[in-house]
Amino acid sequence: MSSQDIPEEKHLPSEQGDAHHGGVALADDPFADPGLPAHRPRIQDIDERAAKRSERTVAMLFTLSMLATIGFIASYVTLPVDKIVFIFPIGKVSALNFALGMTLGTALFCIGAGAVHWARTLMSDVEVAAERHEIAAPPEVRAQVLSDFADGAKESAIGRRPLIRNTMLGALAMLPLSAVVILRDLGPLPEDKLRKTLWAKGKLLINDNTNEPLRPEDIIVGSLTFARPEGLEEDQHDFQTQIAKAALMIVRIKPEDIKDKQELEWSHEGIVAYSKICTHVGCPISLYEQQTHHVLCPCHQSTFDLSDGARVIFGPAGHALPQLRIGVNDEGFLEAHGDFEEPVGPAFWERG
């Protein structure tokens, strides 16, 4: 075949435009602006039924995210920690960990997939070219940016498509619940454990040194006696936890030297019982001065007056020591008439 038989190659206008721009060949100027291709409308742009299908797809993904969040919370609450299951091809795994991972991953994936599908099918996809400018834009440019933002929000169809908007807001609002539920792993809920001790009506005061119930005659003027509630033994697994709240110190003061009326009513013949736990940072109080009836915390020198409601007279402690109401039972032993009226130890939540 001769060269005359070969048909002449024709260039389409688009190809010519690709090869030349502004009269300058791209080969000569590789940094020349090639221009934007002609915009092709999507099927959702011209067919409202297709747009509705995309809207339902996005809403379905957001709804699945909400259901996965609910599944995360349900798995956390219901599945035991020690349950092991076999998952092919992973092998043996913790049922709780697997359920939490799958549900949380599904919740996050569906939010992302829904947002991507929304952007690709329903939001405006018209490309806009803008020349670069200095960082500090003039007022007219800032006004144009705000206008473009408003136009973008309008073109996103978030106002015209409440199904997408509502399901997206629902998915985003529910997802943080997963993190809130996980906070439970920080430890068991305190409930009212910080407000109560083992002391109760009728509990005997047990001497820490002799492990015997205390009688009024055992409390000598000028001495500091330490006690714990009846039934609390050193070999118990929670002994340290319980004694840290229930530790008691007992002194005998002449009734006429007691300044606080309630303190006198809650005592027995001048024998007063106060919490041993300092209200500053919880150190055990162990120093007693007979003439002044002051007790001193050795950690930070907080000083309390046991003849005046154990109020703070020096140091960083912010509250008086809680007093335990005591009396004597039919057998002549000292007993509690109830628990402390307020939480012991360092103040918390302004003492409720």
Provide structural commentary.
With 352 residues, the protein is α+β, with helices and mostly antiparallel strands. The chain is 34% helix and 14% strand. It has 9 helices and 15 strands. The protein has helices spanning 13-19, 43-46, 48-78, 95-121, 139-155, 162-174, 176-182, 239-246, 261-265, and strands at 20-21, 24-25, 84-87, 91-94, 205-207, 225-229, 248-252, 271-275, 287-289, 294-296, 303-305, 311-314, 323-324, 326-328, 334-336. The strands form 5 sheets. Strands 5-6-7-8-13 form a 5-stranded antiparallel sheet. A hairpin with a 4-residue loop joins strand 9 and strand 10. The longest helix has 31 residues, at 48-78. The protein is elongated and about 105 Å long. 25% of the residues are buried. Mean pLDDT is 85; it is low at 1-24.
Distance between the termini: 102 Å
Series of secondary-structure elements, N-terminal to C-terminal: HEEHHEEHHHHEEHEHEEEEEEEE
**Average pLDDT metric:** 85
Shape assignment: elongated
- Flag low-confidence runs: 1-24
Q: What is the spatial order of strands in the main beta sheet?
A: 5-6-7-8-13
Helix/strand/pairing category: alpha+beta
- Rg over alpha carbons: 39 Å
Main β-sheet: number of strands, strand sense, barrel status? 5 strands, antiparallel
Counting DSSP H or I runs of 4 or more residues, the number of helices is 9
Proportion of residues in extended strands: 5-15%
The beta-strand count equals 15
> What percent of the residues sit in helical stretches (DSSP H or I)?
25-40%
